[in-house]
Amino acid sequence: MLILILQTTGLTALIAGLLSLILVIAERYLADYGECKIDINGKRKEVVKGGSSLLATLNEKKIYLASACGGRGSCGFCKCLVLDGGGPLLPTEKPFLTTDEISQNIRLACQVKIKQDIKIQIPEAIFNIRKYKAVVEKIVDFTYDIKELTFRLLEPATIDFKAGQYVQLHTRSYEKIKNPVSRAYSISSNPSQSNLLQLIIRRVPEGICTTWVHDYLKEGEEIEFTGPFGDFYIRETEADMLFIAGGSGKAPIKSMLEWLAENKSQRRMVYFFGARAVQDLYLTEYFHDFEKKLADFNYVPVLSQPLENDKWEGRTGYITQYLTEFVRDCANTEAYLCGSPAMINAMVKGLKECGIKDEKIYYDSF
Ligand SMILES: Cc1cc2nc3c(=O)[nH]c(=O)nc-3n(C[C@H](O)[C@H](O)[C@H](O)COP(=O)(O)OP(=O)(O)OC[C@H]3O[C@@H](n4cnc5c(N)ncnc54)[C@H](O)[C@@H]3O)c2cc1C
Ligand code: FES
């Protein structure tokens, strides 16, 4: 009896599996949605071939929505208001949308497939985001797993961005990686150097883009990126500024400090950089130099696990231990954070305990 039940269950599962496979194949290779119209903000109309994602289709029309994961449905950055024709909300979208967003019909553009005419609304600023061609001018090793890349822009020859924003770097195919991908990287250079762009990229083991950057990309090679994206940028107030970063999170803070120094900012600032050991520190002298360039600035590296032979005489432990030493007036302080999600969560908690208001804490986590 048991064997019969198992056989029947197995057969049913096999048939269900085969049917879904047939549906996927039919959807991919046989479905023809013909020409569909995209109405953007009621102003721009595009006629496109149906069947691709809204994100990819807009990209083809040179409209670039943010997409840190390159369309894999794992970053939640490609949100877009769909007024009509997006089809039902998919389970893959739900984790990234609030109840409010769902009720407004905000969707993830990489998950919405164009199967019929569609009406969308996007911020006007998105029309200023462009695709750039650039040449790799210099690659410098900062640590065993972090490199700085300097690109000289070719076409367009300059870029306008705010310190703290990021770009999407597009890879080429290499070895086993046949399909190019795109990933988000914070710009580390000063916005005033508009003909070049610098990125600080940490190797992620087995990572598609970072393996390409670290092992395959060479000086003199041409690359493409789109941007600028993001709302992590300096708020122009008189408030004190607290910068906190870890690992490659130094990139946007470098851009911000270069911009603030060039513009002779008189604001009071402190920058905590969290690293594990001495081997993870980089640009230390460079950031201490801002203590001379800026009116009131301190650079404070903090090591969480210095090695025995590090001979480290600086601060150790958690950055949150040292906040009160440097932050004088929490009610009048803005915090700019960049690092891993775990670090950002711990810092936000510490900053709130210290009295810094939620709405004055800005961050990019990756
Ligand atoms: C707004 C924004 C700005 C960013 N700025 C920078 C930056 O300035 N410098 C920088 O180095 N990175 C930055 N990132 C991260 C970057 O976009 C990529 O996610 C990262 O470089 C990994 O890409 P990959 O293609 O090499 O790895 P993938 O092929 O995407 O991932 C390979 C595997 O590693 C895991 N993984 C992915 N990312 C990480 C990670 N960071 N740590 C541990 N495991 C991971 C994945 O889950 C997967 O299992 C930023 C991300 C965002 C969203
Ligand atoms: S592009 Fe990342 S979720 Fe859509």
What percent of residues are in strands? 25-35%
Radius of gyration: 24 Å
- The tally of beta strands, per DSSP, is 17
Oligomer: single chain
Poorly predicted runs: none
Q: CATH superfamily name of the largest domain?
A: Nucleotide-binding domain of ferredoxin-NADP reductase (FNR) module
CATH class of the largest domain: Alpha Beta
**Count of helices?**
9
Which class of secondary structure composition applies to the elements? alpha/beta
Q: Overall mean pLDDT score? A: 92
In CATH terms, what is the architecture of the largest domain?
A: 3-Layer(aba) Sandwich
What is the molecular shape? globular
User: Largest beta sheet: what is the strand line-up?
Assistant: 9-8-11-6-7-10
Helix-strand string: HEEHEHEEEEEEEHEEHEHHEEHEHE
Distance between the termini: 54 Å
CATH fold-level assignment of the largest domain? Rossmann fold
How would you summarize the topology of this molecule?
Layout: H1 2-30, E1 35-40, E2 44-49, H2 54-60, E3 79-84, H3 99-104, E4 106-108, E5 118-121, E6 130-141, E7 146-155, E8 166-170, E9 182-186, E10 196-202, H4 208-216, E11 222-229, E12 240-246, H5 250-262, E13 268-275, H6 284-288, H7 290-293, E14 296-303, E15 315-316, H8 323-326, E16 333-339, H9 341-354, E17 361-365
Parallel strand pairs: 1-5, 12-13, 12-16, 13-14, 14-15, 16-17
Antiparallel strand pairs: 1-2, 3-4, 3-5, 6-7, 6-11, 7-10, 8-9, 8-11
Bound molecules: flavin-adenine dinucleotide and FE2/S2 (inorganic) cluster.
